[in-house]
Amino acid sequence: MTYVIQLANWGIHNDGTHPKETTNGINNALIWAANEGFNTVVIPNGTYLIYGIGTNPNVICKNGIHVPSNMHLKLSGNTVLKIEPNGGFTYSVISVGNKENVKISGGKIAGDRNNHVYYLTQNMESGGIDNNGKPIADSTKIRTVGYFDQASQSDKFPVPRYYAEKSGITTTTFDAFYYDINNVYLGKQTSLAFNTGILSGYPAGTKKIKIVVNQPDPTHASIKIKNGLWMEDDFGYGIDIKYSKNVRIDNVELYDLTGDGLYVGVDGVTNGNPPSDNVVVNNCKIYNCRRQGISAVGVINSIIKKCEIYGTNGVSPQYGIDVESAKNENVTIAECYVHDNVGGGIHFYSGNHTTCFNNRVENNNLSVGYTDYCKIQNNTLISSSIVPIWLTDGGDPIDLIIQGNVVIDGNISIPNITRPSLIGNKIIRGQISFSGTRQGYSANNDIVADTASIDYGFKIFNNAVVHSVGDNIIGEFTNASVYSTGNSTSTVVFDNLSIKSHRQAIKTSGNETIFNNLFVDKEFVINTNTDEASLVGRVLFNGGVIKNLTKTWKAIGSTTNVRYTNVKIITSINVIYLWGSNAKMDVMDNIIEIPENHTSDIIRLDAASSGLLIGNKLIKKAGTTGKGIVTANSSALSKIWNNYLIGCTINNKTTDDVRNNIVF
């Protein structure tokens, strides 16, 4: 059954006046309707000023409108519930506390961020205050003209120490005089220091305060204090859902809240109460809130879908959607448009088995903290990044899956977490990076740079352990398509890696970097720089095709150990070059062909470099100069066995071990 609230019967005003009467009237109407068996209550069109101030942030239900269990609260199309402008650090326009089977739909919910009283200011006048709390003449002192009135706040004063700003006051101490809500004097404290903390030890019942300062001149003197205990006034909520089950929020517009547009979960700590369960937030628009668009803090089996959230700004963390703290499990964020929030777009700070799919995120990041078994799938991020955040005080999210996303002008950055998987993503003008990652997996990702503005396409560093399968790197990177460095204790494996680049293809100073079936596409030359590939450490190439090099494939360094096995290289220049003391190169069972007239050598070892050059087929165009294998300038011993050379020869040292080579 549906009940349309009869405003006059309940003393409700829909003209933006009488907040306490209106709030009490709506709550009384909801209680009556529930008792009479109505399951849908409609608030007619109009603007309703709501009294929503609470005096304690750690309570289930603050003031405001309280929706009973088994109730659909329906706001008409032109209904606006607006919080009365206030100085409270906490308020709620609508609360759902420890309830079941609640639905809220339609209308608008407005906060007071533009009219909120964040600070109280008092000018100073000449005079002091006597021991009875009465003003007295005293030319050596100045006092506040009026009271700092904290009647709507808790019993603690953050004044005028920790959050005070003083102007025209030269002293560092003050005297505080305390009064109750009716201006009855309660006592004083003397010689208190500015900016040293929150006042304490004042009389019970204190609601107002006056300040006396020991200086004679009040000209341009004033004190401004934070209005309330909490520095940021960030507990003002549009809809506040705590410890509740089966709650649905549909098609509601929320804006200008001093805290969160919508808060769902628990009160920071569960205190034995269960998390909120089966909460659906659907097709809502949330914007210009100070702290968060939506906070999910202790929620299970819930979904946020088809919402637009933007413009969160004012006080940290300032995310569009933040799944944070407490227990969060089986939370899904789907088909939302999240953009232009100061702190970030979507953040999974804590929880497990969370899913984020088919969302559009612009000018914001998408990040993961202490969240296990999180799936980030099929999202589009523009001028954004997927940045899983590992927090160093103990968090180690495991089994993160990032799959099928499109990232434009942004990166996917994986830190030192366990078993992350990147599968089938497309990154345009960005990069994939792994730093210290444990058991990382990357497969079938496309990394595309259409301008030379990104340093590397695929970057692996800080002892990361990564296995790449079928990744494609295409375009103009300023340094190299692939960079593997600082991985001296790890193994980095690339299987079926495809590189299409006008610039340097591979740069590595790591250990155990392995390329199985490396494909460098013929449509692109590899480098216009001096060093085509700077290879340092242990690097292995096994299989694949490399075509159309424009610079030598160089391995340079005193500790270099490079192996080429079963690689086919077709190019027009000197192909493989090794230089360095104690450097080693194994070139085995490869086919290397230079089809054009060129004077370069195919394989060359210099300095103190040694090699195993075994079972290769080297082909040069007939009539060209240049050798097939040159080791004559190396002081180290090389083994040259069983090679098949067409159109080229071997220039070796007499001390080299040369066996069973065939030269045509």
Automatic annotation (TrEMBL):
It comes from the Bacteria. SUPFAM superfamilies: Pectin lyase-like. Residues 235-381 form the Right handed beta helix domain. InterPro entries: Beta_helix, PbH1, Pectin_lyas_fold, Pectin_lyase_fold/virulence. This is Right handed beta helix domain-containing protein. It comes from Neobacillus niacini.
